[in-house]
Amino acid sequence: MRHLSLVLLILLLAACGGPTQTASAPKAAATTAPTAPTTAPVAPTAVPPSPVPPTATKAPATATTAPTAAPTTAPAAAKPANPDLILATTTSTQDSGLLDVLIPRFQTQTGYVVKTVAVGSGQAMTMGERGEADVLLVHSPDAEVKFMEGGHGTKRLLVMHNDFIIIGPPADPAKIKDIKSSVDALKKIADAKALFLSRGDNSGTDALEKKLWGQAGSVPKGQTWYQETGQGMGATLNVANEKEAYTITDRATYLARKKDLKLDILVEGDKPLLNIYHVIPVNPTKSPRINAAGGQAFADFMVASDTQKFIAAFGVDKYGTALFFPDAGKSEAEVGQ
Amino acid sequence: MDLIIEGVRQAVGLMVSGDAELWSVIWLSLRVSGLATLLSLCLGIPAGAALALNSFWGRRVVIGLVNTGMGLPPVVVGLFVTILLWRNGPLGLFRLLYTPTAMIIAQCVIATPVVTGLTVAAMQSLNPRLRLQLLALGATRPQLVWLLIREARLPILAGVMAGFGAVISEIGASMMVGGNILGQTRVLTTATVMETSKGNFALAIALSLVLLLLMLLVNGLLTWVQQRQRPL
Question: Are residues A142 and A187 in the same domain?
Fold first, then answer.
């Protein structure tokens, strides 16, 4: 009886150990996968958004899509010696959907298999310092400068920008709408003791917010009207929406989420609200396990003119406006002018 | 309310259309949690039997620890497994972080105490005279253990279900050691959190429904095995 249940369980596992899309999965599946010819190793793990229309085949859909995707990609790129690449990046690039389209493009072009870890910029840089990531895509300029001074990155390339905005309930209890200076707006929120939500997660957005509060006087940590969610941008927007609170967000995440938010843009266009993204390959001298070539390839990809054009067009069809503005080759001072 | 209806509609639509991304996520959830549960059985049932059938110094302490482990918080497991598996960490050379294997390891750590603890309880609830009788009938030690485990199979199967339920619904560890990477380590729970934070609530609901359905299928199967022979 009991071994019967075990047999059933094993059967169940064998059933799902079939063709996998992942490069790393075979390790785990090796014990169970019975036949499953592995698909071309370069087959993008992510199913690209457009090329294959969803088919109604009965067989595991992975098996039907992977081969169709492979021929277009396999010959395109010679397989790199070490295809495993860890990208540590911010939640905003994931929550806005940009990475979902950029990463498959990069994988198709180069044959790398990217492990995207979407965390705050702070954690991303800590991972870089520890040699746990190969390349960073981050937006926390002051911390990035420190990171570079510490010798943790090989170079720091400007990729794109958008801007931060202060959003809040349409009723606007602190009356900050159309105030030009973001610092003044925060002062008014503090005076009115209107509920303000902070990310509180040491992310790029959080760093900017803390900096602005510093300029406005002091960070209102511990005040009842100042609350920290400790979560990513998307989750924080959900909370702000429910609590009718003010918060600072990057414009891309806001636009991507606008349809289910009852929060309006109240302050925008102030110079300190610029949100600048850099790509930083991690310094390979830190650990022999860092994939230096891969990190470099990703950085090159992000500033390549094709990718830059793609970034400029991203979101236009869906939101009527671009979410990010490409800046490769510019200096930081030129951005947003 | 409209969101829930929309979620149900999307769930049905996604499954009927054979959405490749969804199926890969479902397979991975099932494979990772299934293998983790299987491993936890291989470790937990012998360990539980050993704890139930032997007396040794410190046994109660060990059982107490196992019982505490049944409530092991997944994030704590996730954090420690992450640190161990960092490529510059102690087990870094295996390059396991952000792979399904890492998720299996973490989930196995979560499920093993559950299986062990419930095995101990199951075997201790057997009538002690059964053991004497089996010995009197001349059972060897392996025969004895095997027969006792067989006798306790119903509650042990309940332990299997509890273990599987704990890991398939777990998120903290999967998120940390897996990284929620599309096509590689994204499972139903982590995908649900991500879609919620993206504001795709209907899709998040659809994913939750699929998860519930999956649990229903697996537990239904196990329950069928458990309840087959008899109403008492």
Answer: no
Domains of chain B, by residue range, sit at 2-226
The pLDDT value recorded for residue A36 is: 38
| Cβ–Cβ gap A13/B38 under 8 Å | yes
Task: Give the domain CATH number at A228.
Answer: 3.40.190.10
For B2-226, which CATH superfamily applies? MetI-like (1.10.3720.10)
Does the beta-carbon distance from B34 to A9 stay under 8 Å? Answer: yes
Looking at the structure, do residues A299 and A266 belong to the same domain, yes or no? no
Over residues A128-161, the pLDDT tens digits come to 999 999 999 999 999 999 999 999 999 999 999 9
Residue A1, domain member (yes or no): no
Residue contact A21–B201, C-beta within 8 A: no
Task: Please name the member of B98, B101, B199 whose beta carbon is closest to the beta carbon of A86.
Answer: B98
A292 and A155 co-located in one domain: yes
Domain-located, residue A18: no
Burial class (CB in 10 A: 0-12, 13-18, 19+), A7: exposed
- The DSSP H or E segment spanning A309 is helix A305-313
Q: Are residues A192 and A260 located together in one domain of the fold?
A: yes
Binary contact (B157, A18; C-beta < 8 A): no
CA distance B124 to B59: 13
HSE value, Cβ hemisphere, 13 Å, CA-based, for A97:
20
Q: What token pair was written down for B44?
A: 């937990």
User: Residue A78 — φ and ψ, nearest 5°?
Assistant: -70, 140
> A41 and A102, same structural domain?
no
Q: Determine contact, residues B202/B3, Cβ cutoff 8 Å.
A: yes
Q: Within the 209-228 window of chain B, which residues sit less than 8 Å (CB to CB) from chain A? A: 218, 221-222, 225-226, 228
Query: In terms of Cα–Cα distance, which of A104, A37, A52, A30 is closest to A310?
Result: A104
**What is the span of the domain harbouring residue A239?**
164-273
pLDDT over threshold 80, residue A15: no
- Is the pLDDT at A181 greater than 50, yes or no? yes
Whether the model pTM is above 0.90: no
pLDDT tens-digit series, residues B164-208? 999 999 999 999 999 898 888 999 999 999 888 888 888 899 999
Higher pLDDT: A21 or A284? It is A284
B222 contacts A5? CB cut-off 8 A = yes
* Alpha carbon of B8: minimum distance to chain A alpha carbons (Å): 19
Q: Residue B232's pLDDT is what?
A: 57
Question: pLDDT-derived band of residue A291, with 50, 70 and 90 as boundaries?
Answer: very high
pLDDT exceeds 50 at position A42? no
Pairing of strands A325-326, A157-168: antiparallel
pLDDT at A261 over 90: yes
